[in-house]
Every structure is written in structure tokens, then in C-alpha cells.
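Input C-alpha cells:
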């Protein structure tokens, strides 16, 4: 009797825990509970997947070649700084081709000194056949190109994950697909366009000086209509001095709200990059205009202090993804490692800018390969059909068991109900994401749940045909079916684990419910129904079993 009592207590505890874990998944009931009970209960339940509650599904591709170009451009800046530091005069250092750097100089006697400096750049090798007395060409090594491309996808994954975490999306799916693609699923998202812009923005922050000494800087128009940037570039491109470029600032008319663009002549050399930022926060200016206050790390603070000290009364452009956000005059030396990015921001735009700056820049631009938006109405329709399928499948299984196995079939149906309650409770306790394939896994588990009882009941029938008493027949049926049930469940469990380890999002959802259902089914089949038969046999001497 003690063994039966212990199993009854265990079943009761499992049932109560399953209901407790499931409560947060049913908001109406959960919200009506007293506050003291909410503090004790878990606050998270089952999360619905993209196909059930709507959202966006993106497949992004990292532009690896551009990642290489960006890495070479940064190397060009580092080489320029080294040459200035060693007081070696050169005409130009620029990227030529995707992974080449060309150094031009007038005095051929400088060649050996420059080669010595370039020896410190271990990722580059000299292209001797392109060298002359006044020119050296270096190319990125193949292994370095491969490393940059490999790290680009990993860095993009991490950056996107950081941005989405700060955006506040529950249970996002972010994973690599193939060699250079990233799959992003954001269930329940209310602002799909804003989320896509936030993910896709490269957020390459650069501080560059304006070239105000050139005549072209005076010839550029003060402002142009939005969309006319290409015409201005085409008109003035031949006049742009080497080492300069034309970039545009976004300007909004405060009275009409109409957007314009203001062209500036900017030096290409990056004085300071955004990788030295430590924080970015939204603040409100004296005229209630939002701006983004940025803080530099110790290295960035030193560099910013030096740059501002050397360029007092000159204008510095704050450039994000080749768009100027502001171009203030440096009035005095700025110490303390702080600056601000102001522009025609709304609060939301300033918040999004702060998010991408805190999360870091993408190593290269992203290209959207696939863009699917799942509406909540479609998701609700999927939920309704999933529930209907589960109810129909459950009703047919219950009806078959009662007709074929009579009272024993009814006991198996009770174990099936317990199986479903425990499975839903386990999914809620693990904060799992329920998808349509997950619902399919639940329906399959229902079929497997009665399958175990069918094996047991057939064994019991064999024992009864041999003239065994009911109690011995029940014990013999469970004992003989035990190994068969364990074998079938273990093999299915192995399949489920393989699907979980190597499958993608929807397949993983199916694998989770399948594996949990198998484990719980083993418990309910061998413990749940057996304890009912034991209670019946202990209460009264049963001579005939309805099976």
C-alpha cells in the first residue's frame, strides 16, 4: 500500500506543478489571481512562435566583399598614422581594388623606409611586379581575407542579437544559415519596418574633418531637395580634390517638416571611428530637441582630446553610414571623452540611433534576401486550426480506446489527459516557443501515448487467456511490455534529439514537443495507469477485468 500511496503523491505533485507552470500562459486567469499568488507563481509561460502570433521572418546576407574593403580602408588609416608618426612623407596611401593598398611617394630613397614600416603589417604582402621606384603595392593575404569573411558573419550575428535584445523582442530566433546568410525571426513585432531598419543599418560611425580650404566647398549649394544627391555628385565629381568626398547632411524644415539635404566637402581620412565608443544615451537639449550623447573609452577619449586640440575653430563631421548627422565647429579642446550627435531627430529616431551605436557597427552591409511578414490574423487562424486538429485527434483516440478496451481504455484516456497536461506544463516551465510543428508534435505524442497502453493491454489479455488471476495478469502484462515500450521510446527519443541538434527553427519546435512528450508518456503509461489498476485490485478482489 505504501508503494501505491507514494506513486499517487508523485502523480498529484506532477499534476499540480504542471498546472502552476501553465497558469502564466493563460493571461485572463493569471491576471485575476491575487498579487501574493503572482509573486509565488512563475511570471512566464509558453511563448507563441512566429507562425502563431505573427511577426517578421528575414533572411539576410552579409556582403563579405565589402567587409574586406572596410578592413583594408581601416588598415590604410593605420598605415597613414604610422607614416606620420615616423615622419615619412608620402604623396598618398589609398585602397586600390578590393584588397590592395597603393603607396605613392616622390623620393625613391624613401622606398626602403616605407617597406620597413609595412613589414609591421603582417596581414599584407608586397606585390613586387607592380612596384616602381616611387610606388609600392601591397595586397591582403588570402588567409587574412578568409579570416575577415568568417569573422564578418559571426560579428554580424552578435551585433544583430545585441540590437534586438535592446529593441525588446521576446523569444527572437537569430541563427546562421549556410556560409554567409543569417535568419532572423521576430514573433509578435508591432513595428516591422522600424525593426528591419534597425537590423539592417550598418551603423559605421566616423569622425571626419571638413575641407573648407577648397574652392569647391564654397561652390556647393547650401541645400538641395531630397533625392537630388546623385545629380550633385555627378555635377561636381570632377572637381573633388583627391582625398576628399562629398557627403550629405539630412536637414528638416521645422515649419513645414519637409526634408532637405545639405552637401559638404569632407576629407576621406577617418580621424576617429565608432569602435572606441563605450556608451550612447538619448538626452534632451535646451530647445527640447533630442540628441544622442556618446562616451568614448579611454583610448577614444585620448584621441578625441588630441583631435579637438589640433583642430580648434575647424568643423568636424559626425558621419554615420556615409550620412552626416551634424558638422559642428570645434570651439575648444574637448576633454573627458564625451561628444554629442544632434540632428533633426524624433525621440524614436534618437533611441534607435543610440541602440545601434551601443550594439556596435556591423562589419559589412546586410542585404535582405527574403522578407516575410506574418499577420496576427493568420497566426490566430493557425492557432484555431491547431486546436481543432488536436481536439479531433484526441476525440477519435479517446473513442477508439473506450470502444475497444472498455473500462481499461477509459483509464488509458485519463493517462492521456494527464500526459497532455504535463506536456503543456513542461513547455511552459521551460519557457519554450510553441509553433505549428510543435502542435504537430503534441498530436503525434497523443497517438504514441495510447500506443504504449495498447502494448500493455494486449499483454494483459494474453495473461488472462492463460487463466491467470486479474492481479497477476496486470502485473505480468506491465512487466512483459516494459522492455518493448522502453525500446520504442528510446529510439524515437534519439530521432527527436538528432532533429533538435541539427534542425532549424520549425523542426526544433517539433523535436522539443516530441522529446518531452515521449519522456512524459513513458511516465504516465508505466506509472499513471498502473497505479489505477493497483488501487482497484487492493480495494476489492477483481475476478473479471473490463479489457
Amino acid at each position: 500500500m505504501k508503494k501505491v500511496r507514494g506513486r499517487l503523491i508523485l502523480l498529484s505533485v506532477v499534476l499540480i506543478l504542471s498546472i502552476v507552470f501553465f497558469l502564466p500562459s493563460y493571461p485572463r486567469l493569471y491576471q485575476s489571481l491575487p498579487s501574493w499568488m503572482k509573486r509565488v507563481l512563475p511570471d512566464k509561460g509558453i511563448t507563441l512562435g512566429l507562425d502563431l502570433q505573427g511577426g517578421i521572418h528575414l533572411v539576410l546576407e552579409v556582403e563579405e566583399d565589402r567587409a574586406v574593403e572596410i578592413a583594408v580602408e581601416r588598415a590604410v588609416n593605420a598605415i597613414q598614422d604610422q607614416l606620420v608618426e615616423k615622419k615619412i612623407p608620402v604623396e598618398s596611401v589609398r585602397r586600390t581594388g578590393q584588397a590592395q593598398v597603393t603607396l605613392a611617394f616622390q623620393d625613391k630613397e624613401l622606398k626602403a623606409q616605407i617597406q620597413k614600416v609595412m613589414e609591421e603589417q603582417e596581414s599584407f604582402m608586397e606585390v613586387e611586379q607592380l612596384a616602381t621606384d616611387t610606388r609600392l603595392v601591397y595586397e591582403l593575404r588570402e588567409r587574412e581575407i578568409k579570416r575577415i569573411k568568417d569573422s564578418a558573419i559571426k560579428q554580424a550575428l552578435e551585433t544583430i542579437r545585441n540590437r534586438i535584445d535592446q529593441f525588446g523582442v521576446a523569444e527572437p530566433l537569430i541563427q546562421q544559415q549556410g556560409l554567409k546568410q543569417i535568419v532572423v525571426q521576430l514573433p509578435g513585432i508591432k513595428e516591422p519596418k522600424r525593426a528591419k531598419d534597425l537590423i539592417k543599418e550598418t551603423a559605421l560611425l566616423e569622425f571626419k574633418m571638413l575641407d573648407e580650404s577648397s574652392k569647391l566647398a564654397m561652390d556647393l549649394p547650401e541645400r538641395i531637395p531630397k533625392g537630388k544627391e546623385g545629380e550633385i555628385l555627378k555635377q561636381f565629381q570632377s572637381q573633388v580634390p583627391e582625398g576628399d568626398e562629398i557627403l550629405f547632411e539630412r536637414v528638416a524644415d521645422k515649419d513645414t517638416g519637409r526634408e532637405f539635404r545639405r552637401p559638404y566637402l569632407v576629407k576621406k581620412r577617418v580621424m576617429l571611428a565608432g569602435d572606441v565608443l563605450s556608451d550612447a544615451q538619448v538626452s534632451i537639449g535646451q530647445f527640447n530637441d533630442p540628441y544622442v550623447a556618446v562616451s568614448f573609452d579611454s583610448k577614444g577619449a585620448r584621441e578625441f582630446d588630441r583631435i579637438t586640440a589640433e583642430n580648434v575653430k575647424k568643423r568636424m563631421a559626425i558621419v554615420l553610414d556615409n550620412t552626416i548627422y551634424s558638422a559642428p565647429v570645434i570651439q575648444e579642446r574637448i576633454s573627458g571623452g564625451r561628444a554629442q550627435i544632434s540632428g533633426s531627430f524624433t525621440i524614436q529616431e534618437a533611441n534607435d540611433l543610440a541602440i545601434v551605436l551601443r550594439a556596435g557597427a556591423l562589419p559589412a552591409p546586410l542585404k535582405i534576401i527574403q522578407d516575410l511578414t506574418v499577420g496576427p490574423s493568420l497566426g490566430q487562424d493557425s492557432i484555431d486550426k491547431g486546436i481543432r486538429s488536436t481536439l479531433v485527434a484526441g476525440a477519435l483516440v479517446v473513442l477508439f480506446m473506450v470502444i475497444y478496451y472498455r473500462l481499461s481504455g477509459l483509464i488509458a484516456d485519463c493517462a492521456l489527459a494527464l500526459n497532455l497536461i504535463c506536456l503543456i506544463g513542461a513547455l511552459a516551465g521551460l519557457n519554450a516557443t510553441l509553433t505549428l510543428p510543435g502542435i504537430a508534435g503534441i498530436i503525434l505524442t497523443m497517438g504514441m501515448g495510447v500506443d504504449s497502453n495498447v502494448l500493455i493491454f494486449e499483454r494483459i489479455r494474453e495473461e488472462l487467456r492463460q487463466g491467470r488471476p486479474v492481479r497477476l495478469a496486470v502485473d505480468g502484462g506491465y512487466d512483459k511490455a516494459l522492455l518493448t515500450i522502453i525500446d520504442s521510446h528510446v529510439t524515437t527519443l534519439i530521432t527527436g534529439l538528432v532533429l533538435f541538434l541539427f534542425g532549424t527553427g520549425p523542426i526544433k519546435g517539433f523535436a522539443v514537443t516530441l522529446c518531452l512528450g515521449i519522456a512524459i508518456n513513458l511516465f504516465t503509461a508505466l506509472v499513471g495507469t498502473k497505479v489505477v489498476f493497483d488501487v482497484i485490485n487492493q480495494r476489492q478482489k477483481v475476478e473479471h477485468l473490463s479489457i
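The longest strand covers residues 244-252. The domain at 2-53+377-539 is CATH 1.20.1640.10 (Multidrug efflux transporter AcrB transmembrane fold).
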